[in-house]
Amino acid sequence: MADLVSAFRAGRSVWVLEPGHFAERHGLIVIIALGESLIAAGVASSEVDRGPMFAVTTAGAVVATCALWWTYFGTLHGRLEERMAQQTDTTRGAFARDVFSFWHAAVVAGVIGVAVAFEEAIAHPDEALSTGAALSLTIGSALFLGGLASSAARAGVGQAVLPRVLIALIALAATPLIPQVPAWCALWGLAILTMAMDVFESRRGDRLNAF
Length: 211
Hints:
By secondary structure, the protein is mainly α. It has helices at 2-10, 19-44, 52-73, 76-85, 92-123, 131-155, 161-173, 183-203. It is built from eight helices and no strands. Helix 2 runs antiparallel to helix 3. The two termini are 32 Å apart.
């Protein structure tokens, strides 16, 4: 709570910020979090038999991670940086606080949740995810996508909001189904849904227009 209050108060001040450097540093935090999710999955695989289901599940985790990376860095990250550069000296601090601090905290928390699901899925590739891991997967996905949608909304990148909100809602709605299907199916479901959104945005011209 102290961190949130102090960040809120600090964001009301005038800060001299370099948009490119600031956006890059926060982007690197997301990259590190995504990389750690794969490391956690790799650790879980150390004592697992390398059968066909292991390969399918591992591939699902890798593709899902790549899809989440693309969701952020494919188009949105550059647009957030552009929007920050367009702020005035008096508004840039609050913008940076909201877009790259508050909402990015939800993004990183979402990656942690997804990593928990990856770890269990790869450790037990022939089984369904437990209720806790299923919640970690769906809520984590929703936090990641919802955090990015909120950052986009705050920055005025309108076309990035709805697709991410829709995928987040689909993930949450699928929560009761996840413990009923094999783990590999759950991971590939996240990968396919997110990748489809990424491809749609890319084919749309790689341009996210403002409100």
